[in-house]
Request: fold
Amino acid sequence: MPGTLEKYSCWLPRHHKSVPVARGRLRDFVAGRPAGEPLLDTGELVLSEFVTNAVVHAKTPPGRLIYLRFELHPGALRIEVHDADPNRPTALPAADHDEAGRGLWLVSQLAASWGCRPREGGIGKAMWALIGGVR
Reply:
């Protein structure tokens, strides 16, 4: 994507405690950057959903890590979460009384675009979303 201002990446354990850690890493990345501040709240929601999916639903051997990548562009934030499970997530309809199952629908409503692709040069998949930008 042209016009990249900054990039950040890191590895986190595949553990439920990594969800708030990932949000903290995003906040630290965006902190003090006026171009990113308006995108932070939505970015945190989308990131939380992707990391939660990688922790809860990815079928991976023990010890596999989650890879995060953030890119800040003029007017847009790109978020990627990689895990070692090659299977794409499936958005299933949630009933009114269900407490889970709306995450990918929420991502589709908040992100300008999003998707899933195989990891380049590795096993698994990468979930990505563009926050801001043009819908």
